[in-house]
TrEMBL record:
Protein name listed in UniProt: peptidylprolyl isomerase
Record Pfam families: FKBP_C
Superkingdom, taxonomy of origin: Eukaryota
Family matches, as InterPro entries: Chloro_FKBP-type_PPIase, PPIase_dom_sf, PPIase_FKBP_dom
SUPFAM superfamilies: FKBP-like (SSF54534)
Organism in which the protein naturally occurs: Apatococcus fuscideae
Origin organism lineage: Eukaryota, Viridiplantae, Chlorophyta, core chlorophytes, Trebouxiophyceae
């Protein structure tokens, strides 16, 4: 992902997938709601590019929203 033009997550470059429990919000706080929405319905091993608008991201705490 990016903030403006800055990449903050690139699982392909990192060589490891993101691992999370779908629907665990708000208890885990790991993924923003926009990422969870974008990844909904995926199966293990799937690939998807997700763009999250600022209003569905982490909000003002992280300089967006």
């Amino acid at each position: 992902g990016t903030t403006g033009s800055e990449v903050f997550e690139d699982t392909q470059k990192r060589g490891k997938p993101i691992v999370f429990v779908s629907g665990s919000r708000p208890f885990t706080g790991g993924l923003c709601i926009g990422a969870e929405e974008g990844l909904a319905g995926m199966r293990g091993g799937g690939r998807r590019r997700v763009t999250v608008p600022a209003d569905r991201g982490f909000g003002p705490k992280f300089g967006v929203g």
